[in-house]
Amino acid sequence: VKLLVMQGGNMSMMGHRLPEIYGTTKAPELDEMIRAHAKERSVEVEIFYTNSDAEFTDRTYKAWQDGIDGIVTNTGAFCFGSYLIRECFNTVTLPIVEIHMSNQIARGTMSVTGAGADAVILGLGVDVYMIGIDACIRLVNRKTARSAAA
Amino acid sequence: VKLLVMQGGNMSMMGHRLPEIYGTTKAPELDEMIRAHAKERSVEVEIFYTNSDAEFTDRTYKAWQDGIDGIVTNTGAFCFGSYLIRECFNTVTLPIVEIHMSNQIARGTMSVTGAGADAVILGLGVDVYMIGIDACIRLVNRKTARSAAA
Amino acid sequence: VKLLVMQGGNMSMMGHRLPEIYGTTKAPELDEMIRAHAKERSVEVEIFYTNSDAEFTDRTYKAWQDGIDGIVTNTGAFCFGSYLIRECFNTVTLPIVEIHMSNQIARGTMSVTGAGADAVILGLGVDVYMIGIDACIRLVNRKTARSAAA
Amino acid sequence: VKLLVMQGGNMSMMGHRLPEIYGTTKAPELDEMIRAHAKERSVEVEIFYTNSDAEFTDRTYKAWQDGIDGIVTNTGAFCFGSYLIRECFNTVTLPIVEIHMSNQIARGTMSVTGAGADAVILGLGVDVYMIGIDACIRLVNRKTARSAAA
Amino acid sequence: VKLLVMQGGNMSMMGHRLPEIYGTTKAPELDEMIRAHAKERSVEVEIFYTNSDAEFTDRTYKAWQDGIDGIVTNTGAFCFGSYLIRECFNTVTLPIVEIHMSNQIARGTMSVTGAGADAVILGLGVDVYMIGIDACIRLVNRKTARSAAA
Amino acid sequence: VKLLVMQGGNMSMMGHRLPEIYGTTKAPELDEMIRAHAKERSVEVEIFYTNSDAEFTDRTYKAWQDGIDGIVTNTGAFCFGSYLIRECFNTVTLPIVEIHMSNQIARGTMSVTGAGADAVILGLGVDVYMIGIDACIRLVNRKTARSAAA
Amino acid sequence: VKLLVMQGGNMSMMGHRLPEIYGTTKAPELDEMIRAHAKERSVEVEIFYTNSDAEFTDRTYKAWQDGIDGIVTNTGAFCFGSYLIRECFNTVTLPIVEIHMSNQIARGTMSVTGAGADAVILGLGVDVYMIGIDACIRLVNRKTARSAAA
Amino acid sequence: VKLLVMQGGNMSMMGHRLPEIYGTTKAPELDEMIRAHAKERSVEVEIFYTNSDAEFTDRTYKAWQDGIDGIVTNTGAFCFGSYLIRECFNTVTLPIVEIHMSNQIARGTMSVTGAGADAVILGLGVDVYMIGIDACIRLVNRKTARSAAA
Amino acid sequence: VKLLVMQGGNMSMMGHRLPEIYGTTKAPELDEMIRAHAKERSVEVEIFYTNSDAEFTDRTYKAWQDGIDGIVTNTGAFCFGSYLIRECFNTVTLPIVEIHMSNQIARGTMSVTGAGADAVILGLGVDVYMIGIDACIRLVNRKTARSAAA
Amino acid sequence: VKLLVMQGGNMSMMGHRLPEIYGTTKAPELDEMIRAHAKERSVEVEIFYTNSDAEFTDRTYKAWQDGIDGIVTNTGAFCFGSYLIRECFNTVTLPIVEIHMSNQIARGTMSVTGAGADAVILGLGVDVYMIGIDACIRLVNRKTARSAAA
Amino acid sequence: VKLLVMQGGNMSMMGHRLPEIYGTTKAPELDEMIRAHAKERSVEVEIFYTNSDAEFTDRTYKAWQDGIDGIVTNTGAFCFGSYLIRECFNTVTLPIVEIHMSNQIARGTMSVTGAGADAVILGLGVDVYMIGIDACIRLVNRKTARSAAA
Amino acid sequence: VKLLVMQGGNMSMMGHRLPEIYGTTKAPELDEMIRAHAKERSVEVEIFYTNSDAEFTDRTYKAWQDGIDGIVTNTGAFCFGSYLIRECFNTVTLPIVEIHMSNQIARGTMSVTGAGADAVILGLGVDVYMIGIDACIRLVNRKTARSAAA
């Protein structure tokens, strides 16, 4: 199993912004945690950061063509209005788990991009990345099982 | 660690309703899956069903007083408008993970009760219960760690 | 044919409230009228009152399991916002006719629970109960005919 | 007792449009069913079709002047926005029962013309015409009884 | 000076509807009052009733072609939503005074057709017809004066 | 008959503002026109200007106490949001005609203060003052006639 | 004079929730304060807590039948959306004073249940219970005086 | 191939209204252009004008019954609110191309009738009629090809 | 303890307006009742009327500077939209109790000025002034107690 | 005549996404169809794909500077919210025809970018590209004719 | 160059209200800063405070008549809803710079009065007064340059 | 002091678009004016143009890391909906002054990106760049003073 973790708008600055809400974990530290967790689960993982929703979309289509098994993504600021990404998610057939570190519902926000994902996980701070990976593995396995059964 | 799994409005009928969206797993089968998963994680689990948001609220306060460590809940139909439960969630200091089997954001729905939870997980079908338990365990452990550190 | 007539929020007080709109027929008098009408149509009828939408929902599921043929219901105050009942109606496969004594459309109200019913009848004062029973019988007969044809 | 059945916007095409929702009964077949039902109830019935809400309104006023006892009407597409008909209904003192073959509330539609009717019946497919006639007869009888008592 | 008085949706029934708001003056009586007032002002007047906004529009274009000097109109129920008439009013270059017997602003209604008129007069009961004619004469005179000056 | 003409917010600057909409007639010229017209109708008239809605309200109550017969008023900028004046108009029993020089409906504006007036006249440029006075005289005469008849 | 004090949704937990807004007075302490105040005013008082709006409604009807003189109630979380209680309040003829410890208007909330009460008091912390009782006594006395005068 | 060109509300007055937006081409000139264009494309064309949406609807049904191949229509003022026509379009299986001479999206308008058409073309001035005919021919050809293939 | 009672927009006319809602007590009678009640409570009271929200605001600031202990105010028509007063209330640190004689929530109105007050009391007719004074005394005493404790 | 065909957000994936709505024609096949059609019309055509609205905008300005005669564009997902492109379209003086393969009005969507185009064509499947090119040629010719006439 | 600095609703209390947002500079201190800054720029400056939007408007018209060159104004609480001032600003031809000490956009507020100003400056604390004066001088100079050029 | 001037969406085309609103100053001319003004103020200035909000965001973060003292930016078309930039502004601790050449409030637009800036300046044409630089210098100096004082 090979997963792509995509970090969207302003996520490269995590740990610098609103630390009372998002905590102080910086992007490189998070990357270490993600890689360690993936190793524990015996899955390959690639991590990608961008502030451009065009690049984000291009990378998603590339992942689809390259045979990546699933995507875990914190779309960051893209969640507020990128219909480009929402439609991209609706196009590719990869399992996609969108994650956010805070509970957006409690803050009255509804992710636009999340409407194109298979699952959405909100809250849990940095742990949301690990739970997101586990959720994505389950989606991949379910899909594999269905294919095998067909 | 001891968790309470609460099933809200119409959840006792799961597997009977909109099977093309929610699947065909019936409540007793789900209970077995939850118990097996909890055992694997070495956590105690209690499961509670009700169609009354008053009972749901009373049970939540009781769990708080009885020293339950965390709550995983599919509030079901209560999610559309129970301010009683939202305020109840805002009152108790237990970690609460709200889960729903379908991606409500894709369906344009925003849970009222979810605004009072610590984390919300949407999609994944019945797997959302297992992922929800794992997420709740993480919240409980984080809390325990903070208490130990204080 | 066996029908369940369910009286929802505040309906036990009918005849006491806004008599210039709803008339002065009290609940026991109405029950007599319903029973007489049912007898005339040779259908069995059971009448149930509750102010709890949880009880209302539980009773609906029980009716479904007990083999009741159809439900005629004035959901009363539940019509303003019980998503629990709406979803319950969407789950059970019994014919459900929702009735209200006044023309809610003329008053700018749209029943939430009615969205889950098969048919909705508005206006006619207490006669709406008799017309509702007749309508429900037709739905039951159509269903029986379809089953027989299948 | 003499009733006028009025078929509004696009109703002459019934059976041709969205048959999965409205069924395949064509207008002439329906007319037969209505006439048979009226005969059974010993009421006279006249049936009128138009795509013009002006003609519909003129016909309503004429019925009022000619001493028709009541009107049963599927206003069809007029229900979406004919304030002309709503105001016309509010003017005449004839009992008016508005009917629609599908449950408009379930489809999120609220009839504009229905706000001027005495009663509104939604759902039941073609049976709604028979139930509508029965409902109208009850309104006529109630009115006659009140006049007699005065 | 020659004026056309146009009576729109349901206006032929005036005096029959909501007499506590609109008074009991019937259409023929009103016509007498209008003709008397016009005579006093030495203007010719033609009166036209219709429930069809298509006829209303056709009549307006005809008046324009026939050299009528101005239009005074109670659009009646057309005022709630006839964009056809609003656009027609915006097309013709005749002075148009729209009148209503009650103060629609006090009732929270804003006329759609009035947006195409030169002036709108609300309230005054049946007197609004006389004041409307006087207002229209002023508009006609102003226009004549401008033409003469050009 | 004695009338009070009240000029509200910014009206003292008329002729200086948006002359392509409101014309170039200055306040003193208008006053002359009003006085001449009143004389012709044999009514007394007093003219009052203010930019304060408090003063406007106080003046209205004083007029009521002093036995003024009716009020003609261009509330000017007060029309956008003075609930104080709307409620004041709803309190006094004097006939009140609100006037505006442009057709506010065509501009998508609905006067807040107009909801408290007996009649509203929109459009006609400066002529609206003369037509407003005539309309107010009719209201006064109707009222006098009713009193005499009582 | 005998009053019923009803505590609605989540009120049994008062003092535990958002103490910076609602203070730290616990339910039993409050009960003491209420009883002492009632004694001082020489009125009998009964206190009732529930998280079920059905029970709340049933208790209200019972109070009406048992001859209670008035109701003072903090409907708590029910205030956000219980149309059941609003309609119940609209049915019974007992004086009802709804109270809330914080100024809901300052927080942008408008109580649904309050629309059915005779009076609403917002703010004052726990003192709102005492002021609410005094207000209710005044309503009872006014009613008694009116009855005596009739 | 035989097409029907239908001109809706106020279109008979084209060239007279807002010429700075719609140009000065009059209806008879346009008819010539349409006929010439149709001839060049070797299609038969019939042109129909009406200000009545009822006539418009009746004519559409007649075209369907008479075997017309497709409809090109500028619904004119009907586009603002004729649900009758929208539903009519949804009923007939003829290819329908709705056209408007100005870009309604740039003007913030969304055609109600257009929701029932197969294609909508906005802008291009009078050329929109020629482009609309070409588009309709393509739809007819696609349909014919599909039928042949079936 | 010294209190200021402020009467806002149109309140000087109380007893003259909508007596079926607000009763017939005139301003001078009310003043007597207020003074008698204050005397009974041994508090000094000053009463101030104005239709100007600027004067109202100036008076509030003066009261603050003069050492008045609290304000009881029926802001009257100012409640519909005076952000000036709302912000003024938010500035001064005096206890402020806003009162209204009718239950505004039942009438669907939410006071703008009330958002700046400490407490809001709605309903009770003229008794709301006495209850408002009692509530204000409690706020003053709480504040004094806190100061003494500090 | 030289045209630029621009394919916006997610259009490079056409044929892969929602084929039941958009068909199965892939981007390279479409390019062939466009080139063949252009050749037939004797116009030069360049085709450009991007998922970045910044690149899209830069390319548009370049086309303007390079003397391209017109633009035909399916802005794809950019149509949901790219004000950047809308303003860019409003800046350049090139004829711009925006096209979409499905009838967006039927789906309740109104293109943001379309508000800056000269014409918008909706529906027709892949044929919309050919019709769009023809429409653009007409706009170019009209513009050339106007320049020649000046 | 002579400027008028106008301080609107509640501004005389600046430094007393929400000091964590607006700072602690009191009105007299600010006046000193403004005068010193004006002196440095060699412009005359007059400062005016009022809580009455009527006085504010009268003063604006007076400034216009007296030949003041420009106005710098913090309209304070008037910004929330004074259409009187907005229209006044739209009438006078003086350069007007509206200023606010906090960034209202960040707080979700859009000034009503600012819609009538030439420029609006938000944020910068008390420095906004100095920047506002500099901006106004630029507007005055531009205007003078244009006049000289004409 | 070193400032970065950032020109956002479509700003490279300034002078070409809507010259009657924005004037005819082209980008290179503006750059000269900015550099001359900065020199006069003895501040270093760098100017950056982009149509990509991703590039804009990356450049902002780089400025923060490189020790730039403040940012002055006309976000251009990004102001309509770039949550990416708004969140970026909320992250960096540099003083940011957003400027626009026209008064957006008068045009009913509220900048999304401006909600993340420290100050917003609207109107003044090209002078807004000079005033924006002066405002930014003040913010930088205030910040330096605070740091020195700490």
Strand-helix topology:
The structure is a homododecamer of 150-residue chains.
Chain A: E1 2-9, H1 19-22, H2 27-40, E2 44-49, H3 53-66, E3 70-76, H4 83-91, E4 96-100, E5 119-122, H5 127-149
Parallel strand pairs in A: 1-2, 1-3, 3-4, 4-5
> SSE order of chain A, as H and E?
EHHEHEHEEH
**Fraction of residues in helix of chain A:** 40-55%
Widest sheet of chain A: strand order?
2-1-3-4-5
Task: Tell the overall outline of chain A.
Answer: globular
Quaternary structure type: homododecamer
Terminal CA distance of chain A reads 20 Å
Most residues in contact: chain pair: A-B, 28 and 28 residues
Unreliable segments of 5+ consecutive residues of chain A? none
The total of beta strands of chain A comes to 5
CA gyration radius of chain A, whole angstroms: 14 Å
Major beta sheet summary of chain A: 5 strands, parallel
Task: Compute the number of helices of chain A.
Answer: 5
Structural class of chain A: alpha/beta
Give a brief outline of the structure.
Chain A has about 150 residues and is α/β, with parallel strands linked by helices. The first copy, chain A, has helices at about 20, 25-40, 55-65, 85-90, 125-150, and strands at about 1-10, 45-50, 70-75, 95-100, 120.
Write up what this structure looks like.
The structure is a homododecamer of 150-residue chains. With 150 residues, chain A is an alpha/beta fold. Helices cover 43% and strands 20% of the residues of chain A. Chain A has helices spanning 19-22, 27-40, 53-66, 83-91, 127-149; strands spanning 2-9, 44-49, 70-76, 96-100, 119-122. In chain A, strands 2-1-3-4-5 form a five-stranded parallel beta sheet, sandwiched between helices. The mean pLDDT of chain A is 96. Chain A binds chain L through residues 9-10, 12-13, 16-18, 50-55, 76-78, 80-81, and chain L through 52, 54-55, 57-58, 61, 81, 83-84, 86-88, 90-91. Strand 5 (119-122) of chain C pairs antiparallel with strand 5 (119-122) of chain D, so a sheet runs across the interface.
